[in-house]
Design a protein that fits this description.
- The chain has 13 helices and 9 strands.
- The chain is of the alpha/beta class and 281 residues long.
- The chain has 2 domains: 154 residues, 3-Layer(aba) Sandwich (Rossmann fold), CATH 3.40.50; 115 residues, N-(1-d-carboxylethyl)-l-norvaline Dehydrogenase, domain 2 (Orthogonal Bundle), CATH 1.10.1040.10.
- The chain has a 6-stranded parallel beta sheet, with helices on both faces. Strands 7-8-9 form a 3-stranded mixed beta sheet, sandwiched between helices.
- α7 crosses α11.
């Protein structure tokens, strides 16, 4: 059986590792914080994880964390191994190291995830693979353990471009809700009425409908923190800019994220921004 090592055990990395364990895979994990996850073998250090794994799945916070992990992996024997980079970071981080990775006999793909930990745990998140056909096919066999919606979209780096396009639409939808909910409040329209009409009609979005209990305050759990969503918005802007383009719409979304973070909501679920906008309308 394929031995899989997960690098990074935050919300997403933990969900990936635990989902794969539940699917019967042999899983070990490592994180710089030393965090232990129930049911997942903890490697004592990164070189030990690399040595004991056939496939390495990276799930890390930002460019610097991914660069650190990849550089550390490059100091190890990588012959025959596959690196699946799932983090939301600019593609250049992996692309700049791809020649070195393949030069050590390894393969690599970018395979960012659309959907929070709850969708990973259910095996229903979306995954967009960027990489050559052979590497993508091998990666699909592993990713199928935590996703039933896997798409090989093109060469290395296009996975994150596809996530940028896909998740930017979600970011812009919630920016629109932030913009419109103060109007609902001032006109005396109940938040629940407005949201149920939106979610049940052509102006709805599945993610908003799925998070309706969170928007209405009935579910206080956090699937994905607003601070992470704000970080993703910055990544998406940089991806757009790396192709010689600008996104005024994402710039507007960033202003909204800055507002909710300044209000101290960074650790709350993105759904909370809708009720916050309504309350402060």
């Amino acid at each position: 059986m394929e031995r899989i090592g997960v690098i990074g055990l935050g919300r997403m990395g933990s969900a990936i590792a635990q989902r794969l364990v539940a699917q019967g895979y042999s899983i070990a994990g490592w994180t710089r914080s030393g965090r232990a996850i129930e049911g997942v073998i903890s490697a004592p250090d990164l070189p030990s994880l690399v040595a004991s794994s056939d496939t390495l799945v990276l799930s890390l916070l930002d460019d610097a964390a991914v660069a650190f992990a990849l550089d550390a992996c490059l100091e190890c024997d990588l012959d025959g191994k596959l690196i699946i980079e799932t983090s939301t970071v600019v593609p250049k981080v992996l692309q700049d190291r791809f020649a070195a990775i393949t030069g050590k006999g390894a393969a690599a793909v970018d395979a960012p995830i659309s959907g929070g930990p709850e969708l990973v745990a259910a095996g229903s998140c979306g995954v967009f693979i960027g990489g050559d056909d052979a590497h993508a096919k091998r990666a699909e066999a592993v990713i199928a353990g935590y996703s039933n919606r896997v798409f090989h979209v093109g060469p290395l780096g296009t996975g994150l471009v596809m996530k940028t396009i896909n998740n930017s639409m979600i970011q812009l939808y919630f920016a629109g809700l932030r913009d419109m909910m103060p109007l609902a409040k001032r006109a005396g329209l109940p938040l629940e009425t407005a949201m149920r009409i939106l979610c049940g009609g052509p102006a709805g979005m599945p993610m908003a409908a799925d998070r309706l209990p969170k928007i209405l305050g009935e579910d206080k759990t956090v699937g994905f923190a607003m601070s992470a969503a704000a970080k993703d918005c910055d990544v998406f802007q940089r991806v757009v800019q790396s192709h010689g383009l600008e996104s005024p719409a994402l710039a507007v979304a960033k202003v909204g994220w800055d507002e909710v973070l300044a209000a101290g909501l960074g650790d709350e679920d993105p759904a909370r921004q809708v009720s916050w906008a309504y309350e402060n309308g």
